[in-house]
């Protein structure tokens, strides 16, 4: 019953992933390719964590 109130780590990671993608898009539109590449790298790491969690369930 208590698991009903536990936070889902995948939801949190998905939210962070979406935020990184949006930040990367804005950086790319500004022409800041260096920041874009760092943000996309961070987003890729988050996606790998999400994939790992989904594979476990």
Describe the structure.
- It contains two helices and no strands.
- 81% of the residues lie in helices and 0% in strands.
- It has one domain.
- Helix 1 runs antiparallel to helix 2 (33-56).
- The chain is mostly helical.
Strand content: under 5%
- The tally of domains stands at 1
Helix content: over 70%
Helix/strand-derived category reads: mainly alpha
Count of DSSP H/I helices: 2
Task: Give the quaternary arrangement of the chains.
Answer: single chain
Regions with pLDDT < 50 over 5+ consecutive residues? Answer: none
Chain-wise SSE layout:
Elements: H1 9-30, H2 33-56
Helix pairs in contact: 1-2
Q: Notable features of this structure?
A:
mainly alpha; single chain; 57 residues
Provide a concise account of the structure shown:
81% of the residues lie in helices and 0% in strands.
């Amino acid at each position: 019953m208590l698991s009903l109130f536990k936070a889902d780590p995948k939801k949190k990671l998905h939210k962070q992933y979406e935020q990184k993608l949006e930040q990367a898009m804005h950086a790319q539109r500004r022409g800041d390719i260096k920041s874009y590449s760092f943000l996309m790298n961070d987003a890729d790491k988050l996606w790998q964590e999400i994939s790992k969690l989904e594979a476990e369930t």
